[in-house]
Every structure is written in structure tokens, then in C-alpha cells.
Amino acid sequence: MAKRTAVKRKDRAGGREDGLNPRRPCECGSGKRFKACHGTGGGAADVIITRPFEGLASECELIALREFVPSATARLPLVDGVSAVDVTLASVLPMAAAAMRRNDDQALVGLQVQTRSGDLSRDLARAVRWVADAGAGDMLPVVGPDDDPAGPRLQDLLIADAPLDIELHPDFAWWIPEGTEATPEITVSLERANEAIMPTERLDGTDIRAAYWVDAGEKAHLRWVRPEPEEKLLAAMARLAARDALTLGEGSRYAGSFRAHGLLVPVWDLDRELHAREWEKPAADLGVRLTEALGTLEDTPLDESERRARAGLIGRQITLR
User: Fold this and answer.
1) Are residues 176 and 209 in the same domain?
2) Residue ranges under compositional bias (Basic and acidic residues) (predicted)?
3) How confident is the model over 199-230, as pLDDT tens digits?
4) Among 43, 76, 239, 253, which residue's beta carbon has the most beta carbons within 10 A?
């Protein structure tokens, strides 16, 4: 009897015929366990694309809008023939919808949505194709199960080297077209979204991309989505950290980093008394130092102090709340 009980416990804990632990962190980066995320189907494990926007010039900005920018929109640079109307990408739509065609006929696709597959790029492409053919007032709550795994991805629909012209909004009033009345459901969703929003500014400057100042209340942060491969970026950051150069100057402190869709997002704590614009030059200077450090890695391996700094950086992984 004891032996059979032990076997049952093993079956409950261990889990899958493919030998993968269902309690492991999901590879999609959601922070959930695999069994509660992309492993919920009960069948074969979904193939998860860990870097869904690779190959697009807008990769870093797409990650920022997906992960932490609260209210923003950008017209998608679609290739010819995809849609007869302009399609606008939004950080989040009412009720976290995947796509909607407003009553004023504006076509919108949301980034902060529940995903149904392991490829966020393919899900977004399906939402774009849906909204291109939708009628005024139609809404797509979620992208349904993928019955065409060979279907187009976002990379197939966008001009790959075209940047996104992002417009940040202080709230979600843009959800409702001027002169129209929102439904009760959208009104409730709007109120909740406005209550949760954190003031956010995008830093501008030469070679500054996908860097966002966020006022989180007690302190402000800089969250900077970097395009470099993680190991290379960590090495360059370690080289700077070893000489106390991984900083934005007085009033700043390197807090750690988090992974998002295949890239690393370093985060700095900032003095919230300073305006976002005041951090643009320090960020640009840090960007120059990072570029210089990246250029030295091939010829000059990390020394002992830099390897210790790298270990410290790896240990400072943070989680967004």
C-alpha cells in the first residue's frame, strides 16, 4: 500500500510524458508556472517563441508596450495589401480586448491581452487580419485557438525596418471616440484602468530607444528595453559596474533587470523629484558607455572583478508588479 501511495504522489508531482516539469516557470515570461499558463491544454506542450518580435526594428518598443507602458498608441506600418484601413496598435484596449473596430471605424489591436498560443507575434497578426475585415462596433475579446500554425506572423505584415511612432496618453480617454457614449461595460473598464495608471514618459535622444520613465509612487524608475543578446549585454553592464559606471548619476541607483520576450530590461531607481526630461542626457551618456563596453568584449574578456560584478547583476533579477 505504501508503495502504491508513493507512485501516486510521483504521478501527481512529476507530471508529463515528455519529461518536462509542469511546475517550471513558463517560457513565455508571464511569471506563471507552465501548467497554469501555456500548459493548460492537457495535450502536447505548445511551442513557445521566446523572442516573438525578433527581426522588427520596433522590437524593443513592442516589448515595452506589451509589458509596462500603460496607455499608448501607434499606427502600424503595414505592408501593402494587408488592410484597406489604417490599423492602430494600442497598449491595452477596453476589457483587455484583442482587437476592436470602433463606431468611428477606427481599427485597433491590443498588446496587453491574454494569449492562446506560444507565439505572441502570430496572435497579433491574426488580430490585425480580423480587425481589417471587421465591421464598425465589432470587438474580438481574445484570439481563439490557432488552427493555422503556419499562418502569417507580425513580421509578415509589417515593414520590418519601419519604427513605431508612439503616442503616450495620460489616461484612457482615447478609448471613447469624441461625441459618443460608452457602454456600461466600457465605462467600468475605463474607470478601473484610469485608477491603476502610473505616469509614464518616453525618454528621447540620440540612440535612446524604448527607455521609459515611470512614476511608481514612492520612487520613479527608468525601464530600458535593450536590443542586445542577454549574455553580451550582461557582460558589458558588468564591465561598467566594476568601475561604478552603471549609473545615471546623482539620484539614481541600478535596481536590477527583468527578462521580457527574449530581451533584458535593466531598471534604475530614480529621484522622483526630477522631471523625466532631466534624465535624458544621463541616459544618453550611459548609452554611449554601454556601446563602448560592448565593443571591447570580443578582444578583452572580463577580468576577475568584472566577473564578480556580472554575478551580482545576475542575482538582481526583479519582477514587475
Assistant:
1) no
2) 12-24
3) 999 999 888 999 999 999 888 999 999 999 99
4) 239
Rounded Cα distance, 242 and 86, in Å = 48
- Give CA–CA dist 51/48, Å, rounded: 9
- Enumerate residues 6+ apart whose C-beta is below 8 A from 178: none
Give the HSE-up count for residue 30: Cα atoms under 13 Å, Cβ half-sphere. Answer: 22
How big is the chain, counted in residues?
321
CB 100 within 8 A of CB 89: no
Cα separation, 166 vs 164, in Å, equals 6
Point out which residues pair with 257 in neighbouring strands: 266, 317
Residue whose entry in the numeric block shows the C-alpha cell 515611470: 214
| Cα→Cα distances 6→15, 20, 54, Å | 14, 20, 45
Nearest to 261 by CA among 225, 208, 223, 209: 225
CB atoms within 10 A of CB 85: 14
Q: Which of 64, 100, 90 is nearest to 169 (CA)?
A: 90
Q: What pTM did the predictor assign?
A: 0.84
Q: Look up residue 254 and give its three cell numbers.
A: 541600478
Q: What is the pLDDT of residues 99-156, one digit of tens each?
A: 999 989 999 999 999 876 889 999 999 999 999 999 999 999 999 766 666 789 999 9
| Contact between residue 241 and residue 318 where contact means Cβ atoms under 8 Å apart | no
Residue 16 lies in a domain: no
Task: Name the strand (E) or helix (H) holding 267.
Answer: strand 263-270
Specify if 13 maps to a domain: no
**235 and 271 in a common domain:** yes
Instruction: Look at the chain and report how many structural domains it folds into.
Output: 3
Question: What single letter denotes the amino acid at residue 33?
Answer: R
Torsion of CA 255, 275, 92, 66, to 10 degrees: -30
**183 and 113, same domain (yes or no):** yes
Nearest Cα neighbor of 194 from 167, 175, 220 is 175
Share of the chain above pLDDT 70, in %: 83
Tally: H helices and E strands in the chain: 8, 11
